[in-house]
Amino acid sequence: MKIKFHYLLIVFVLFSSCLKKRNNINFINIENDTWSASDTLFFNFKDLDAEKKHYAKLTIKHKTDYYYQNLILFLQANNQIDTLNLQLAKKNGTWNSKGAGDTRFYSKTLKNLNFDKKDSISIVINHAMRNTNTNQIREIHGISSVGLEIINED
Question: Domains in the chain, please, with CATH?
Answer without folding.
Answer: 23-152 (2.60.120)
